[in-house]
Input
Amino acid sequence: MSTPQQQFIATGKANLDNLVAAQNRMFAGFEALIDLNLTVFKSSLENLAEKSQQVASLKNPEQASSFATTLLQPSAEGALNYSQQVFDIIAGLQRDLGNLTEAQINQNQQQVSQLIEQAEKNAPAGSESFFAMVKTAVLNSTHVADSMVKAGRQVSDVVDSNITAARNAAVKATEKAAEAVEKTVSRATRAASTPA
Output
């Protein structure tokens, strides 16, 4: 077998290995999302059972008021934690796939450079300008690929910071909503306990 054929076979094998690695990582991410959803579902059922027992033990409006104010905060926190965990899984998956893609691009660029060098060694005299043009084209494509990888990382960083900012804003909104519910329930309790 000649060297270009061996390189072609090695390239095909490396591409297949990278495809399998990407599929395995995507499956692991999917599996993590399923595990998270099952855990949240189980926790929700346990929480529902606990809250149902607590409701059954309430004896007066003050206890109901106190219970109502405690319901909102944990639910909102749970939803925020869930969304953060989903984002972390997806961001990790995106990072891993980006790293695999970057490694594949680098490997392909290296193999192309080696093929060009071998072809140049066996080329007839007078083909130097052709190989200079090919090397320039490969160098330009390398710069384009590097720019795309950097842009992908920047997009990922922006999305991450936007989600963090949205989560922080949601936490503040939840806290304000819990305070408003507490005030409303308190007023309603006072109004209900005041004789008419």
